[in-house]
Amino acid sequence: MSVQERKKRERADRERLIVAAAREIAEEHGWDAVTTRRLSEHIEYSQPVLYSHFRGKREIIGAVALEGAAEMAAAARAATSAADTPRARVTALARAYLGFAESNPAVYDAMFRLDGGLVFAHEDTPEPLKDAFASLLDPLGEVAGDGVDPAMFTEVFWASLHGLATLGRSGRLPKADAERRTDLLVSRLIAA
Amino acid sequence: MSVQERKKRERADRERLIVAAAREIAEEHGWDAVTTRRLSEHIEYSQPVLYSHFRGKREIIGAVALEGAAEMAAAARAATSAADTPRARVTALARAYLGFAESNPAVYDAMFRLDGGLVFAHEDTPEPLKDAFASLLDPLGEVAGDGVDPAMFTEVFWASLHGLATLGRSGRLPKADAERRTDLLVSRLIAA
DNA sequence: TCGTTTGTCTAGCAGTGCTAGGATCGATCC
DNA sequence: GGATCGATCCTAGCACTGCTAGACAAACGA
């Protein structure tokens, strides 16, 4: 049934178009500007079409989050693979993480601030999220220290970076000294 | 002019009533449920009255945030004053901070997640926010370590706690082990 | 007692997420 | 080939949002 195949392909294409449009609008004007009307106008379909792909706006955010998780994992791995000591890898990881958050604020929000209906820290967490966590765990496990669960250490490290990223971007931390804060955090968290 | 005095007092009372109502609704049903209509119904005045006190919903969030900052500072000081070593003070501080965030999620969001139109980390930052930061800085300055700016250390410590609080509450960190994560964070951040 | 000011309310605007029901198009069957 | 039927999509509309203009009444000063 080549016809059905084609339709399925077209539907998948349109779904990608929706996610890309949502991401683009969010990155340009913030998530508040991602309304179903603007979105439908952007993809040149009417609003109800959105709801034949996603249960609602929340699921669209979730789709953007999954896309972002894959990219973030790739960025993390690219950064760590270029360093050759455990400590250098972790420093590179921290910088890459914060760099990603700063360069893709809307995607970052979809992943870690907004409600995209995704399940975290659970066995049926979506694969991209698990893999993103793994991309942090790999280099961090090397410096967790004796008797410290690598996963838990990764959670703490991740949370700390998340705090720096969100408080920094919302203007709650001084613009200056962001680099030095990162360095201090890394040097302290790494096992002595 | 006793009449004007009375009116001024009544206005101030009503303003407190608005802030209290916003806080109560937010704490009970989340900030999304704090609509101008529900709020006006709660205080038994019409919507436009809100706008004679606050420029908009954002300012109401800001007012709740300032109230919360004062309470958080008090909680922090109460917790640290009961401990007698620098390390014990910092541990108590961390627990108190996370406890406040968990017990008052809506207020915490008003302070550190939502946009309440408040200026942070600046000379004309509102006094309650400055004082809340000071309540963190006092015990943390003791363990910042040589050659480390106490303010910057406090920022890093605070951001880390903020990350644990927000990721934890949104279900992005495992419910279990929250205490152990806090302990690990504290023990690593404190100067060796 | 009569304006004037102050305070409050009703009514409404433009926008939101989301959906019911009708139209239209294309694939299928006689 | 032409009728039928199902999938696909759109128009129109719901209940809600933050916010405001303009009417109205009460309290005030002259």
UniProtKB/TrEMBL annotation, chains A, B:
Transmembrane segments: none annotated. It comes from the Bacteria. InterPro entries: Homeodomain-like_sf, HTH-type_TetR-like_transc_reg, HTH_TetR, MT1864/Rv1816-like_C, Tet_transcr_reg_TetR-rel_C_sf. Residues 35-54 bind DNA. Keywords: DNA-binding, Transcription, Transcription regulation. Residues 12-72 form the HTH tetR-type domain. This is TetR/AcrR family transcriptional regulator.
